[in-house]
Amino acid sequence: MAAAVGAAGAAWAVTQDDPAATASTTTAEAAVGTYEETVASTGTFQPAETAELSFAVSGEVLSVDVAVGDVVVAGQALATVGTETLDAELTAAEAALDAALERLDSDTDAGATDTQLAADEASVAAAESRVAQATEALDDATLTSTIAGTVASVDVAVGDEVSGSSASSGSTGSTGSAGATGATGASSTTPSTGTGAQITVITTDAFVVETSVGSADLSRLQEGLQAELTPSDGGEVVYGTVSSVGLVASSSTSGAATFPVEIAVTGAVDGVYAGGSADVSIIVEQRADVLTVPTAAVATTDGATTVTVVSEDGSQVETPVEIGTSFGIQTEIVSGLEAGAEVVVPMAIRGGGGGGGGGEDGEELPPGSRFPGGEFPGGGGFPGGGAPNGGQG
């Protein structure tokens, strides 16, 4: 959770031992604002739909009508195989059906037994089924796209001999119908998995981001939550909605259990490409009209929490308060203080000879502004380059 990380960093930076620093103060106003709590992760942009397509019949490839990068529509012909054998099979099936129908008519006219007529009707049904299968196989000699999109790969060429199969080409999470004309693949919400599809078509105007979270954050996620997605190559932020949260864990490279999360990208997707990485920030809570003061202004002694308020006459009054959520360098005040109140914020003044990369000698270092070794929160710096415990919230 981003807010928790910020709070831990701020608290650590303020309370660290620094013999070269002397006490000083500044003031800040208690202010009302809107704050978000987020779950952060990284993920990968993937096409919203992927169709991995292969011929459902055997034969020699006579034409390949598309190339990588071509834009296609659903139902468009992509490639064909020869139909000589398929034509012969259909002709034979139709002849068998004609014969079965003649036999049924003849036996009916001759007053054959019910048993014989039932056998004739069964023969007609079997012949009709064979004709239907042969007709479908002839249709399948043309490989067609099951989705509208862009051709991502072509792994078949004119003259190739292909072996048809009724098995899926490996797509999962189907959003279209398997076994579409001429294709054994199905539309899918997952990217191509390299399962040997002869032609792969993907959407390039609709994307999802696949990411994962740890068990500590899983209970906070649900479908419909909003997310900000920042392309790692420096592209503009795009937005999305959590579309699925997996409940079956897998192990990360560190051995910790992680759970898959899919985010549907909404709105414009200019500059987004399949396979690109993204920094993900899922908003798990958004609160408006929150009264906060700088975290450094809050003191807790013997279980009592207070802030020091500057009164109209300039005197300083230690005031009991009830605090709520910490938002990094800001802390929520639930009761005991009103918006606009001026509170005292401890600072540090670095003396001569101090180590670290903070201010120059004598420079004031207000909490949440500058710290030894870098800036926080803008630059996110901490002494030695890291927050305590690796910066984990």
Automatic annotation (TrEMBL):
Tree of life domain: Bacteria
Keyword vocabulary terms for this entry: Coiled coil
Renumbered residue ranges of the record's region Disordered: 162-195, 351-393
UniProt xrefs under SUPFAM superfamilies: HlyD-like secretion proteins
Compositional bias segments (type: Low complexity): 163-195
Residue ranges that the Swiss-Prot or TrEMBL entry lists as coiled coil: 83-144
CC annotations in GO: cell envelope
Domain Multidrug resistance protein MdtA-like C-terminal permuted SH3: from-to ranges: 289-345
Gene3D superfamilies xref list: 2.40.30.170, 2.40.420.20, 2.40.50.100
Composition bias type Gly residues, residue spans: 375-393
Localization per record: Cell envelope
Name of the protein: Membrane fusion protein, macrolide-specific efflux system
Source species of the chain: Jiangella alkaliphila
Organism classification: Bacteria, Bacillati, Actinomycetota, Actinomycetes, Jiangellales
